[in-house]
Design brief:
CATH topology of the largest domain: Rossmann fold
Strand content: 15-25%
Order of helices and strands: EEEHEHHEHEEEEHEHEEEHHEHHHHHHEE
Low-confidence stretches: 402-406
CATH superfamily of the largest domain: HUPs
Largest sheet: 5 strands, parallel
Mean pLDDT: 92
Shape: elongated
Number of strands: 16
């Protein structure tokens, strides 16, 4: 079954056919590094990390490119507030962002490209837009002329700003030809970083940074462009206009994929209202596996709610899978029926994932398998273990280490606790349990005996 992708550009779910057949060139808009990364970033980047992993597991060679916006109005504004050079602000929060991604297990990005490293490519692209009649100059820099590009709006289905849109990067100027015209190159201002170029001293606008970077690595057209849904307009619409106008080649990207928004504790996340949760704040509330599972248990295009209840549900679901994994006996010889059930489950999960990366549908199939296995009299063996390992290779959300950690001291304490419980000496048995909990040991009592394992926080 071919992978199907919901394409924002066409509004349809389509067969995924990259230009180079077995290679995928994939770009996802990276962060603007002016402050700590938030859980909205975590959702988007975790879901695209999974998409890259699944494409690779499906036989594609994926090159995953992500930009780092380190030249921007927001960085300059913060540098003034804190009296710190803008390059220091950008370096600090880029470092934090990469650390946060590593903590979440988001490891599939092949290239992180900083905007300031691509000034020559940005200038070259602006010069081509000028030469083709798509740009005009005002006293504060160069602007893209929307009227020169009839295709503007084909991605989002609109051309005008609305009250809910962020307008922080739509530069105001009384002499702009159209209110939506956006800055390509901003003239030098006192106290701001600048580069001396053929366009005059200044710095790039926001949108042009991304298309210069993607053209550098992928050329004027590539396979997949991703980002959060709130970037469709005006940012992604501007990218389409710039690159297709500069190159005369379309489409900029064959497939556009967008993740749903995240609400935190009942409200849309917003710095202005104080409803803003950083990734590090979230990891203080829960562990990284649970947070990652929470995002991947939802379809990437769906909006979702993140609160203590959803985190607890994610933790409980993740633990159900881990607890099942710990019941597996790798030395057991599976019956043909057990092997067949495990193989059929993996096949059905893949069918869901082939259908626009339907992670909740795939996980529902896995839980049905676990319920059936728990009802059978036959132990689960290597076929079940292989299934769980294959799932974890994609999701990266489970601690499926063997319950037997090979620690004889812990084994002895667990046996002593079992003896005390059998003698109904519950106070001393509970004291041993508390001692083990302090050591990071989790106990699970069952009719077959007590299993234990060491909890991992990452």
């Amino acid at each position: 079954m071919a992978i199907k992708v919901h394409n924002t550009l066409t509004g349809r779910t389509e067969d995924f056919r990259p230009e180079r057949e077995t290679e995928v060139r994939m770009f996802v808009c990276g962060p603007t590094v002016y402050g700590p990364s938030h859980v909205g970033h975590a959702k988007t980047y975790t879901q695209f990390d999974f998409i890259a992993a699944y494409l690779e597991a499906s036989g594609y060679k994926v090159t995953y490119l992500q930009n780092i916006t380190d030249v921007d109005d927001k960085i300059i504004r913060r540098s003034r507030e804190e009296n710190v050079p803008p390059e220091d602000i950008a370096a600090l929060f880029e470092k934090q962002y990469l650390e946060d991604m590593a903590a979440l297990g988001n490891t599939r990005v092949d290239i992180h490209a900083r905007a300031h490293d691509h000034i020559d490519a940005i200038v070259d692209q602006v010069k081509r837009l000028i030469a083709r009649g798509h740009a005009y100059q005002l006293d504060d820099g160069w602007y893209f002329d929307l009227a020169s590009f009839p295709g503007y709006g084909k991605l989002s289905g609109r051309t005008d700003l609305r009250p809910e849109d962020s307008v922080s990067r739509i530069d105001d100027h009384s002499k702009k030809r159209s209110p939506g015209d956006f800055a390509l190159w901003k003239g030098r201002k006192d106290g701001e970083p600048f580069w001396d170029t053929e366009l005059g001293p200044g710095r790039p606008g926001w949108h042009i940074e991304d298309t210069a970077i993607t053209e550098t690595f992928f050329g004027p057209s590539y396979d997949l462009h991703g980002g959060a849904v709130d970037l469709i307009f005006p940012h992604h619409e501007a990218e389409v206009a710039q690159m297709e106008a500069a190159s005369g080649i379309e489409p900029l990207a064959r497939y556009w994929m967008h993740t749903g928004l995240l609400r935190v504790d009942g409200d849309k996340m917003s710095k202005s209202t104080g409803n803003f949760l950083t990734i590090r704040d979230a990891l203080a509330r829960t562990d990284s596996r649970t947070l990652r599972y929470a995002f991947l248990s939802q379809h990437y295009r769906s909006s979702m709610e993140l609160n203590d209840s959803t985190l607890e549900q994610a933790r409980a679901a993740r633990r159900r899978i881990e607890n099942f994994a710990r019941t597996i006996d790798p030395a057991h010889t599976d019956s043909p029926a057990n092997t067949s059930r495990a193989d059929a489950t993996w096949k059905e999960m893949r069918e869901h994932l082939d259908d626009d990366f339907d992670t909740p549908g795939a996980l529902a199939v896995l839980f049905q398998f676990i319920r059936e296995q728990n009802r059978t009299q036959e132990p689960s063996g290597p076929a079940s273990l292989r299934l769980i390992q294959d799932v974890n290779d994609l999701f990266g959300t489970f601690d499926i280490a063997s319950a037997d950690q090979g620690d004889t001291a812990v084994d002895d304490l667990v046996k002593e606790r079992d003896r005390l419980r059998a003698a109904r000496n519950f106070a001393e048995a509970d004291a041993i349990r508390d001692q083990l909990i302090k050591q990071g040991i989790t106990l699970e009592d069952s009719p077959e005996g007590t299993r234990w394992w060491k909890e991992k926080t990452q």
